[in-house]
Structure formats: structure tokens, C-alpha cells
Amino acid sequence: MTDRAGGAAPGFARGRRLRSTPALRRLTAQTRVAPADLVLPVFVKQDLAEPVPIGSMPGVVQHSLDSVRKAAHEAAEAGIGGLMLFGIPAEKDAVGSQADAADGIVNVALQQLRADLGDELVLMADLCLCEYTDHGHCGVVTPAGVVDNDPTLDRYAAVAIAQAQAGAHLVAPSGMMDGQVAAIRAGLDSAAFSEIPILAYAAKYASGFYGPFREAAEGAPQFGDRSTYQMDPPNAAEALREVAQDLAEGADAVMVKPALPYLDIVRQVADAVSVPVAAYQVSGEYAMVEAAAANGWIDRERAILETLVAIRRAGAGQVLTYWAVEAARWLARG
């Protein structure tokens, strides 16, 4: 609509009015990302003297016990919300014994980090067996090669107790076994850890975006895949059922994984629940952005921050991302 002079008529809506300066855009932003919203996943490997770069994830390493302590201090200084620890043991077996061993790599790391940092960061422990089993699956496997759900629950409860004893502020079951939250809650409560919360990977999909993680955590399945226990990508209503089940079993917060390919699921879950909702920006998401940036196809910083905003805008209160510390520094810069 124009007036007789050819300009916009009085009252014509001009969205550009609020976009004209960086300060105006900051003032009117509807979604914000803060350093405290971000969680850094870290890999710590037994018997490493120095950190080892992960080829498919430029800038990410397998940490030694010393280097993970340094990384944790840097994370605390950057003001991020927490760390999610994954461990790679020196020895693996059929039941993942090192996952709940007192001298297991994650449990030793938790002890050291809790002593170093106290409550300055939320120390989260991924509670799964795939990094610890010689077959690479997330639970106990039958002679026929099927992951056996109920015996696996006993292992998860034992691992949760060990992680709590080591100093974890929060445990995060990611194996997608039926009944895992109830088993872990019962185990923690019976061991006098009733105050330890559970962040359930409630909607974890059998995704093609996990490839680089297999290298990082050295936990690729030695046969088959995880499609019989992780969710099928076409299914959305099932995600809400899984979330509801985990909450009924005692989960304190829930997670959607991966993040960007499942923003619709993040939104639906956030709308349906009244507990914190996290989303995991997984290794494949990270690797794609890094590869495109390395080729000069995208502006790396802008693309990273845009993905984080998208995940927050979809409804995630917390975002697990390998860029957590770097992004926190950018956000602090303003």
C-alpha cells in the first residue's frame, strides 16, 4: 500500500524498524542463548599421556585425565552450565565391567573433577555401556546377539551408583532400554543417593548423525546396529510416549537426541512437559558445520551460533554441544 507520493501509507507495518542497528536487534531478540545454557560433552580415555585429536571432529580430542581437568577449568571460566563425561576404558568385556569399577576411567575423572571444581560446574555422567563392552552395544547381549533388556537394567543401576559415589551431580541414561529410569532411580535411592537427579535420554533416535562419535568414544557396534532399541526416525508420537514413560518412572529432566534433525520433536516435548528439556547437538551436526567452514562455504561463527539459537528457539533449555566453551566466549563478547 502506498500514498499518492509513492511512499508507504501511514500505519504501514515496517518490520525493518526494529532491525536497523545491532543494538536494536539485541534488544528485541525473542530467543537468547547464554553460556549457562550450554553443556560440553568430553571424552576421557584411560592410560593416555596426552590428548589425542579426533579426525572426524576437528578441534575435539580424547582427553587424558590431566587434560580433561584443564578443559574443565576452562569450561568453568567460560561460564557454561556443565560437562557430560564419556569414558573409553583400556579393557572391554561383554558386560562393560569398567563402567562401574571404582578405578574405571569416568569414575576416576569424576572424583578428580569434583575435588577440583566442587559445585562450580554440573558434572554429568553419560550412563551407557557401549563404550565399555567388547561388542559395542548398549547392554548385555544374549548368545543370539540380541540386547537383553532386563539384565541390562541391573547393570545400569550399578553404574549409576558408582557414578554417584564418584561425584557425579547428575546421571544421564542413554541406552534406551525399557524401564531404565525406574531401575536407576530405585538403585540410587537404595544406595542413599536419592538427591541425584536423572536426565533421561528419553527420545534418542537411531540416527545417521552419530558417525564421528563412534570414532571419539570407540564404541561402534561390532555387529548389527541399534535400531531395535533406539527410536525410528519417522516416529514423533512415539517420542512423546517415551518421554511420558521416563517421567512416570522418575526422570527429573529429559533429552532429545540428535538436535537439529529433530527440532520438531524438541518443540513437541517442550510443549508437553514441565521439566527441563535438553537437546544434544551430536557429532555429525558438528562435523558437517566444521567441514563446510573449512571449505569456506559458510561463516563458521555465524553458523554455529545460528544452530544454537535454533535449538533454543525450538524449546530446549539446555544444549549439549562440542562448541560449548567457544560459543560461550563469543556470547560473553556480545
From TrEMBL:
Xref: SUPFAM superfamilies: Aldolase (SSF51569)
Record-listed E.C. numbers: 4.2.1.24
Chain positions recorded as Zn(2+) binding sites: C128, C130, C138
Binding residue positions for 5-aminolevulinate 1: R214, R226
GO MF annotation terms: porphobilinogen synthase activity; zinc ion binding
Enzyme class: lyase
Pfam families, per database record: ALAD
Pathway per the UniProt entry: Porphyrin-containing compound metabolism; protoporphyrin-IX biosynthesis; coproporphyrinogen-III from 5-aminolevulinate: step 1/4
Binding positions for Mg(2+) per the UniProt entry: E242
One annotated Gene Ontology cellular component of this protein: cytosol
Gene Ontology biological process: protoporphyrinogen IX biosynthetic process
Assigned keywords, A-Z: Heme biosynthesis, Lyase, Magnesium, Metal-binding, Porphyrin biosynthesis, Zinc
Residues at the catalytic site: K204 (schiff-base intermediate with substrate), K257 (schiff-base intermediate with substrate)
Binding-site residues, 5-aminolevulinate 2: S283, Y322
Function: Catalyzes an early step in the biosynthesis of tetrapyrroles. Binds two molecules of 5-aminolevulinate per subunit, each at a distinct site, and catalyzes their condensation to form porphobilinogen.
Family note: Belongs to the ALAD family.
Assembly and oligomerization: Homooctamer.
The name this protein goes by in its record: Delta-aminolevulinic acid dehydratase
